[in-house]
Structure formats: structure tokens, C-alpha cells
């Protein structure tokens, strides 16, 4: 018997670009209307006590917030309809566990995580930090997959991965070959995450939409990027193969107009038939 509503698990991930600001622009209304069973948020940029109750601890949800030690930066959260069996903040990194970039929860049959991978900036210390994070995190992903397999569980890591893996994942790829987020070493790292002989994970939305440009999930606020759909696909559902095979629908909840956006990212939702 399936342990989720209607025989499916619906998971949504979104970088809110500041949850307090997003709540004032339409996130609260979106949250009240979503059918998701699990919600993964990134770049929350707030302490739990700073959030209004209907956003930070809404009725009908179990919520864990993992804010960054540096106030007003990063921060990830998980909202689940059912109470998790276990919650873990961070992935055992002395450098990054206090940075508000990773939280995971065990639900029946699956471990779900919210990830905010550092954005980086080519040629700077920020990029060095991103590369250090990536190195530690790949080791965690491998260990997490192995532990889950031993327990008969699947894994789903959702979030802002801040890497466009392929040319199809950003509109202006030619102009960004030297930009953080599309550097060869970043793309190669994500290839390792997704290689069967290495990380062993699957990019779920790409697997569902193998031959399309995008669907993009982030558009700069500058210029007319949103109106022209000049975006990047950097918000991903990355799952173990057993769960990825059960994905029946994946889509980006793109706002109808620029004025209706409550973040520079859009929610990415996948329905898993369990």
C-alpha cells in the first residue's frame, strides 16, 4: 500500500530569494494552494522567528528551517505534510554545516533533501569555496546513496544546484562559457553526480524532457530576461534511479507575467507514482 496521498508523492523545490520578501509578493498565496507533499526551499535568508506564522510554520505542515550562521544569507527549509522520521542539518562538513545550505529528512521509503549549492564567481575566492563544497558534497551523495540502498530507500536531492549542465540548460550558453555556473569543471562535476559508475543519480526533469531547451527555472531581474525566456535551468530534482523511474510528470511553475513573480526562480514540481 502506498504511504502517500492518492498513491503519489509530489515534490516542489524553489529558491525563494528571501522568504520574507517572497511572502509579500505572492508566495503565501501559492503555498496555501499547492498540492505538494514536500516543499524544498532555498535562499530563505531568515531566522524562523522572523517569519510570519502562516509562512514559517503553516498549519498542516511539518517544517524544519536551517538558517545560515551569517545573518541574512543562504538558508534552506523543508516543509512536509507528514512528520519526518529523522531530520539532519548539514552533511558532516566542518566548513559548510553552519552555512544554511543543506537539510534532509527521512520520509517513508525516501530521504528528501533541500540543497543550496554556492553560486560562485569565476576567478574569486567565492569560486574556490564553491569547488570545495562540491568536492565534499559529492562524497556525501555517494555515501547517502549507498546507505539508502542498504536500507531499501530512495534519495531525492532538490534545490538550486547553481550549475547548468548542458547547453540546453541555458539560453545564452555561448556568452557564458567563462561564467560561474557553466564552467567546464562545474559541468564535469555534475556529470560525475549523474554518472552511473560515480554518483549514480538521475536528473529527473531532464530525463522526462530529454530533447527540449530548458525548461528554464531562473531568469535575471535585469533587462527583459523573463519576457524573452533568456533563462538558466539550475534548479534540479536529482534522484536515485529507482525513484527517478517513478517520475510521471515534471514541470516548472513559471509565472504568467513578470509582475506576478515572487522570486527570480520558479518552482520546479515533480510527481512520483509510488
From TrEMBL:
Probably binds two magnesium or manganese ions per subunit. GO terms for molecular function: double-stranded DNA 3'-5' DNA exonuclease activity; metal ion binding. Keywords: Hydrolase, Magnesium, Manganese, Metal-binding. The active site is at residues 116, 160, 265. Coiled coil: none annotated. SUPFAM superfamilies: DNase I-like (SSF56219). This is Exodeoxyribonuclease III. It comes from Streptomyces glaucescens. The lineage of its organism: Bacteria, Bacillati, Actinomycetota, Actinomycetes, Kitasatosporales.
